[in-house]
Design goal:
The chain is α/β, with parallel strands linked by helices. It is built from 15 helices and 18 strands. The strands form 6 sheets. Strands 5, 6, 7, 8 and 11 form a 5-stranded mixed sheet that branches. A 4-stranded parallel sheet has the order 4-3-12-13, with helices on both faces. Helix 2 crosses helix 3, helix 4 crosses helix 7 and helix 6 crosses helix 7. The protein binds adenosine monophosphate and zinc ion. The site of adenosine monophosphate (AMP) has 17 residues, from helix 1 and strand 12.
Length: 483
Amino acid sequence: MHLYNTLTRQIEPFSPLSDGIVRMYSCGPTVYDVAHLGNMRAFVFVDLLQRALRAVAGYRVRWVMNITDVDDKTIRDSAVGSARWRAPMGEQSDDLRANLRAYTMFFEEEFKRDLQVLGIRMDHFEAMPRATDYIDEMQHLIREIVRSGFGYASEGSVYFNVGAYAQSHSYGRLFTIDTANFREGVRIDADEYDRESVSDFVLWKGRKDSEPYWDFEIDGESLPGRPGWHIECSAMSKELLGLPFDIHTGGVDLRFPHHEDELAQCCAGYHVADQARFWMHNEFLEVEGKKMSKSLGNFYTLRDLEAMGHDPLDIRFALMLGSYRAVLNFTFESLRAAATARGRTQNLIWDLMDSASITESVDLGGAMPEDVAAAFADDLNVPQALARTYEYCARNSDARTDAVKAREVLGALQRINDVLAVWTFTTRPTIDVPANVRDLADQRWTARTAKDWSEADRLRNELASLGWSMKDGKDSYTLQPLS
Ligand code: AMP
Ligand code: ZN
């Protein structure tokens, strides 16, 4: 496979460090709320990537995605008396860490539900570590960074010394940083900051009243508090995958500061040259030219769209219809178009199952058409893979009436679906056809058999006005509701 690597700013041939096994770390959600569709674009992208690594390249994938359950937002929203506390989370207690866990577990479960309805399989993950389960490992890394001269304690917190680090390492490998902006001696406590604020960032935040905390000691100094966001991923990725691993993923907004800082921490504290060999970033999902985000209030959650009657697999399909490196604009029109395109192939699959007399979901042991595999292998070019899939189906349109060919095409579509995961290979759901529609269809079939084309056309239009389409087979017809 060839993949775009943010580290080198180019497409490179990819092969894993250990034979046949890809170690991949994806920055996961901050579980202070339900994820929105923009977040889901990031997760559908990594799912496609890891599925392609398996199904196209034949690798085993050790996939880790973290759950950020301690940060400014989860702490704020789990605070005693928070309006965001919900009954299913139970009662709040004096144990602030227990409150944090109960609050974040609720959204973690929601997140996992969302992943599954979007076709992302839990058994494809090797681990989904929660940050609060790795505090010891984070503290160990922070001590190492300080011991190596790249960190220091100040007023109860611990900071990363960017100036000292930049003297012996390169800072700005993932994101071009203008060092003129570097604010020497300025310390920043916020987890999220922009490129104008390059300065010493926080590794460990000193305890604040009424916030959960963990005990911590450096060189005999007691520093109760909690980890900064960036240190979480450095420690968990090293612990679960070992350094350097093969691929690190996230949305483009994570390049700086999150990933740049993760990388710096690993080099400073674990004394490695690299945290990961490939860094891959998906572009944003936008709504009317703006990033879909909580803070802009222009977001939809998966449940919002499900409540409007949209099928989650149409949503998954809509999220993959462009290059992952291009901004994708979300509109209901594009969602409808995705539903129509997905439905067309789904109907073909059911027709082929009829043609091959297959009544249950079986793996036909087919092969992915080579040109489709090549498109996936070309930096995950889904639009091209789909175009070639449609061409392949068009070339084999006689499969609808040829049982042997039908099996072959179905087998190929199953392999393509190992990556896309948008179609089903179970039998066509039975549709209740109203009696008057059935009558009209019978009349049309009779007219057609008698070669009375004008009457047959008239009845087809009448059926369409009632919302039905009639497909003529050799000896019988099928009826489908128009979508
Ligand atoms: P968060 O839960 O905010 O930490 O974000 C989880 C993931 O979603 C990260 O990889 C973000 O980069 C990504 N993300 C957030 N908003 C968007 C968006 N509008 N489009 C695509 N990815 C996004
Ligand atoms: Zn991360």
